[in-house]
Design brief:
Helices cover 65% and strands 2% of the residues. With 569 residues, it is mainly α. It has one domain (1-6, 23-569). The strands form two sheets. A two-stranded antiparallel sheet has the order 1-2. It has a two-stranded antiparallel sheet with strand order 3-4. Helix 4 (103-114) packs parallel to helix 18 (484-513), helix 9 runs parallel beside helix 12 and helix 14 (383-403) crosses helix 19 (530-564).
Length: 569
């Protein structure tokens, strides 16, 4: 580890901190229905969308109506993408003659992009046409990201409102998020990436010949437009199989930094949005601090683990001074690879600029733990905030038990219904990632896709289901996932990881919105200081540790011990 490496981590962190309050302030005005600096240009377009769709922007919805509208919208998204994937051979903008995806792969991919997971059991440049990438995947990157933000806004309204029967209007939140937040930033981001050297073309692939006469076909594609939203919307699915390790998706050190900032931008801003909406920005900064400390801890451990190198390779004569460079881009080095891996798994992004399968055991443990905690460290757009707020409910319930008092948070009493719905939302993730991992590790269909024996092979399976249940999309790429078993079980995992958590979370939002806000009293637990941050971090780590430590023990922990003893497996 070097001083320059720590400076780069500090620079990235400082940029995120500086952007958090302006982004939070803009979203507060936007979702409160106030005028923004973009209103003169975009307001007429917004009104036009409502008229075309027959939506009354002044009519709000009950939490159940809001949830049903969200589910219907996402069902339509899934059906449209599945149709595109199955029919792409008949559609235009297909210069390479890509054929239809098999039914199981199309099912997995359609659910993947609908749930904001962007898990890819295919090679982008060798499987999908331009039209499918643009009209299918890029559009769904906007739709799934806007859905997550809308849901977070609804939950925040639950905490902020008093004796209300409604939590907003899903269609209005969806349109405003897409029109005022995602589109403008994505357009600016795409132009920036084109400037940095990212292709944006509908031309055919380029044929190049080496000095020896060997022919190489170089894919180019309209990459920049999808790249911007895949990062901003924490989607992560790339045009190229190598994702952000590919020089066409991530050509420079500056593009690498901007991609990481885009991943955290909206998740960080939503914490400030929460504080403003409940009338106390300190509440938002307490959530931000909790996320920030967990992020820095993960980045430090991953940086240390990769910089320390691999003792097994050192014993074979490799110079340890360079650290573990296996699977990393030389132009990014260890620090930017470790930082990117931490950021992309803190958020439910899944874009990678290094191969996670080549990380050291403890290095690979960090992305896995980030996802196992539920992507709450800034998290996917919207999903990170509402996931963290669910942990806040658990933490306040624990605090209430310790002092013998009904727990409350930002003036709302947290009673049996909220706690039950919260636990239902949190327990759906271990149900699928642990359950399917156990089955896959014991049956031929599951083991057949593993590239390595022993604990690393187990980690490949566990990482895959963890990534899918957390709607992340990154992988220990040694696992061959394009099989009937992994396509079908992966689709189920991604669906449950997204929607089985959302429905009880929305029930919590509706219940909280109907409650009165109580003024703080002498017995109210303060939720803006270090004690609350420590309690929240402790709750997150204890819940995660008790749930997942056995599985982690037989995977990366055992692998680390074997590596330290010099054992080859």
């Amino acid at each position: 580890m070097t001083l320059d490496g720590w400076f780069q981590i500090a620079l990235f962190s400082a940029i995120v901190v500086l952007l958090t309050r302006p982004v939070g302030g803009f979203m507060t005005r936007l979702f409160s229905g106030e005028r923004t600096f973009l209103s003169p240009v975009l307001r007429p377009l917004e009104i036009g969308f409502y008229r075309l769709a027959g939506v009354d922007e002044k009519t709000e919805q009950h939490w159940l109506t809001y949830t049903v509208a969200m589910l219907v919208f996402n069902l339509a998204c899934f059906a449209s993408l599945y149709a595109l994937l199955r029919l792409q051979g008949l559609l235009p903008f297909n210069p390479q003659g890509m054929t239809a995806l098999t039914p199981d792969l199309a099912l997995n991919t359609a659910i993947s992009f609908t749930t904001n997971t962007n898990w890819q059991n295919y090679g982008g440049e060798s499987t999908l046409s331009y039209f499918t990438q643009m009209a299918g995947l890029t559009v769904h990157n906007f739709a799934s990201a806007a859905t997550g933000i809308a849901l977070a806004v609804a939950l925040v309204r639950g905490f902020a409102r008093r004796s209300s029967k409604t939590v907003g209007n899903f269609w209005v939140d969806l349109v405003r998020c897409t029109l005022y937040v995602l589109l403008p930033v994505s357009i600016l981001g795409a132009l920036f990436f084109v400037w940095q050297g990212v292709p944006q073309t509908l031309g055919t692939y380029t044929e190049a010949y080496t000095l020896e006469g060997a022919k190489h076909v170089i894919a180019q594609w309209p990459v920049a437009s999808q790249l911007a939203i895949k990062m901003l919307g924490t989607n992560g699915g790339g045009f190229f199989n190598a994702n952000s390790a590919h020089p066409f998706e991530n050509p420079t050190a500056l593009s690498n930094l901007v991609q990481m900032v885009l991943i955290f931008l909206l998740g960080a801003g939503l914490t400030n949005f929460f504080g403003r909406m409940v009338g106390d920005e300190r509440q938002g900064w307490a959530i931000f601090t909790t996320m920030g400390l967990l992020f820095l801890a993960g980045a430090a451990v991953l940086y240390w683990a990769e910089a320390a190198g691999n003792p097994t390779l050192t014993a074979l004569g490799l110079d340890p001074a360079g650290g573990n460079m296996e699977g990393k881009e030389v132009r990014f080095g260890i620090v930017n690879s470790a930082l990117f891996a931490t950021v992309t798994t803190d958020a439910s992004c899944g874009a990678v600029n290094t191969m996670h399968d080549s990380l050291t055991p403890l290095g690979g443990l960090v992305p896995m733990v980030n996802m196992l905690l539920g992507e709450i460290i800034f998290g996917g757009v919207g999903a990170g905030l509402y996931g963290m707020l669910l942990f806040v409910i658990v933490a306040m319930f624990v605090a209430g038990l310790m002092v013998g008092r009904t727990p409350e948070y930002v003036g709302k009493k947290l009673e049996a219904k909220e706690v039950k719905m919260t636990m239902l939302a949190l327990l759906c993730l271990p149900l699928v990632n642990l359950g399917f991992t156990a089955i896959a590790a014991a049956i031929p269909a599951g083991v057949a896709g593993v590239a390595n024996a022993g604990p690393h092979g187990f980690s490949e399976i566990f990482y895959a289901y963890t990534s899918m249940s957390a709607n992340n999309g990154s992988a220990f790429a040694g696992l061959s996932g394009n099989t009937l078993w992994y396509n079908l079980t992966g689709a189920v995992t991604m669906f449950i990881g997204r929607f089985a958590m959302i429905v009880p979370m929305m029930a919590v939002a509706g219940s909280l919105a109907a409650k009165k806000r109580l003024p703080p009293s002498l017995g109210t637990f303060p939720t803006t200081g270090p004690l609350f941050v420590a309690l929240l971090i402790g709750t997150i780590l204890i819940v995660g540790g008790l749930t997942y430590f056995p599985a982690l023990s037989v995977g990366p922990v055992v692998e680390h011990l074997l590596m330290q003893t010099g054992a080859l497996y």
